[in-house]
Amino acid sequence: MELKIMNNRKLLKNISSHLIMLIVLLVVLFPMIYAIVVSTQTNSEYYKFPPNMRPGTGAVENYIDAWQKGDLGRLLFNSTFISLFVALGKIILSILAGFTFVYFKSKGKIFFFIMILITQMLPLPVRIVPTYMLMSQFGWVNTYWALTIPFFASATGTLLFRQLYMMIPTSFADAAKVDGVNSLQFLWYIVIPLSKTNIAALFLIEFIFIWNQYLWPLIVGNSREVRVVQIGLKQLIDTDAAVSWNVLMSGTVLAMIPPLIILVIFQSSLIKGLALGQDK
Fold first, then answer.
1. What CATH superfamily is the domain 69-279?
2. What sign does the dihedral 166-122-230-225 (CA atoms) show?
């Protein structure tokens, strides 16, 4: 009897937890689902009352209109290039910084590491004015350089790889020295292969972080040649007429595709990285 009660409680607990997760999932996904539904509707279907949550008949026209009117081909290329370039740059610098802090002895490296971590406490708006002045002095405003170089330094990435390399047994480095392996060879052939999961996880996080940037690209990259998709979507809003929300949502859905592809490709590495972090 007691066993049956325990099984019933366990079943009820499982049902309750799955129901809660389902509700949370629906709440999180509702904006995306709504955007996809609206992107398929014509103006007359969208402005019906009460709102219609069924797919409409204007999907093809909406997406073609959004692509042409918003120049989304150029915008998606800019955002993808900038996000990839920054993510790769951050990973390279973070690996080199983490490797240096662990395997090279120098006075004051703890101080410099703490100073790097302190920069993480400064939000982007605090750094905008001095960074913009620096970009202006370099003549980088409205160039890819201003949209990428300021993001290369990463306190989070440096901390991530430093902690990872501190967990690698010192016997690996000692054996490499005995075999005549220099520092760069040790980094390339031993350390980096052990960092693949962390590299993939950091790449995913940084790609999506840069993709979602709005304020900085709005300030330094507002010309057509370097404009990113988040800024360019505003072109789909006609200030002289009623907003075509179906066309705007079509552009928004197209803007979600590249980060979703990256998420699907690297999600397993992110999960593995989190699991390894918990095990350690």
1. MetI-like (1.10.3720.10)
2. negative
Angle at 196 between CA 260 and CA 104, to 5 degrees: 130
Per-residue pLDDT of the chain (280 residues; tens, 9 = 90+): 556 666 777 778 888 888 999 999 889 889 889 899 999 988 888 888 787 788 888 889 999 999 988 889 999 999 999 999 999 999 999 999 999 998 888 888 888 888 888 887 777 778 888 899 999 999 999 999 999 999 998 888 898 899 889 888 888 888 888 888 888 888 898 899 988 888 988 899 899 999 999 989 999 988 888 999 988 888 787 656 677 888 899 999 999 999 999 988 887 776 766 555 444 4
3-state secondary structure string, 237-278? CCCCCCCCHHHHHHHHHHHHHHHHHHHHHHHHHHHHHHHHHH
C-alpha 178/C-alpha 96 separation (Å) is: 23
Residue 237 neighbours by CB under 8 Å, 6+ apart: 243, 248
Alpha carbon distance 81, 199 (integer Å): 18
Statement: the pTM of the whole predicted model exceeds 0.90: no
Interatomic CA distance for residues 88 and 199, integer angstroms? 9
CA-based diameter of the chain, in Å? 79
At position 19, the amino acid (one-letter code) is L
DSSP reduced 3-state for 124: helix
